[in-house]
Amino acid sequence: MMALTPEDTASLECPLDMSKPWALAVRAVIRDQTGRWLLLRRTSRCEHFAGTWELPGGKADSGETIDGALRREVREETGLLVRPTGLIGMTDCEMPKRYVVALYFHTVGEQRAVILSEEHDHFTWAQLAEMDGLDLRSEERRVGKE
């Protein structure tokens, strides 16, 4: 592999505000027996993305493993116990105070009742084609198309 020199990268433009701190988020693709994806709707009380639909997940805590963060976030938001089986994609999102990179994982787990956290007010199981009719976060929409 060839290393890039400063001359090679001088013409590259970065649209990101690189002075902001970075955060890692993890998202779970949880499917039911018919292949539908679990989506959660953020409450109107949420500071960011209120009323939009998203995959279960959230930001990793400092020092937390990716696997641990994914399992914790899914359990907190849905009551479901899952384990990741493979990485399926990555997105990025610039927030007011930080830049967030999200990793998306296929998961497996027990089929049981979904118990929502206080940050979500509804859930649905949707086929990919049905997601076009939902106010889905743009990051989730990109993963669904891949």
Structural commentary:
With 146 residues, the protein is of the alpha+beta class. It is built from three helices and seven strands; from the N terminus they run αββββαβββα. The strands form two sheets. Strands 4-1-6-5 form a four-stranded mixed β-sheet, sandwiched between helices.
Summarize, please:
This protein has 146 residues and is of the alpha+beta class. Helices cover 17% and strands 34% of the residues. The strands form two sheets. It has a four-stranded mixed β-sheet with strand order 4-1-6-5, sandwiched between helices. A three-stranded antiparallel β-sheet has the order 3-2-7, with no helix packed on it.
